[in-house]
Amino acid sequence: MSPEAQRIAIDEACGYFHAKRGVDVWYEPEGGHVVFGDLPDYLNDLNAMHEAEKMLTPQQWCGYLGHLATLGGFDRDIQTYDKDGGFTADFVMLFRTMAHATAAQRAEAFIRTLNLWNDSK
């Protein structure tokens, strides 16, 4: 998906309503007020993605974290605990990868979690 298509998908998932009447007009989710400034830059702003992540249900978080892991390069199941009951090095690296995901990675994972990813856009 193009960066613009990703931004629009997240905007709409977060409740913004888009109407084109000569110019692009966005309405915010609470109260329907017109947004005249720029909407959040999800692909470059971790704070914007943090706000978007608040929309996810607990069940969606499982899928979201899975997408972040895949985008971070983990394509296999890992053992969480070692024989002594501590976390394995793989698990720590997986957690680190997800915790340090970029805004762009989080945006893609968010869109994929909501099944809005479209390679043709």
Amount of helix = 40-55%
Task: Summarize the main sheet.
Answer: 3 strands, antiparallel
Approximate strand percentage = 5-15%
* SSE sequence, one letter per element: HEEEHHHH
Give an overview in words.
There is one protein chain. The chain is mainly alpha-helical and 121 residues long. It has one domain (3-113). It has helices at 3-13, 46-53, 58-71, 89-99, 103-113, and strands spanning 17-21, 23-27, 34-35. A 3-stranded antiparallel beta sheet has the order 1-2-3, with no helix packed on it. Strand 2 and strand 3 form a beta hairpin. Helix 1 crosses helix 5, helix 2 packs parallel to helix 5 and helix 3 packs across helix 5 (103-113). The protein is elongated, with a radius of gyration of 17 Å. The mean pLDDT is 82.
Q: How would you describe this structure in keywords?
A:
121 residues, mainly alpha, 3 strands, elongated
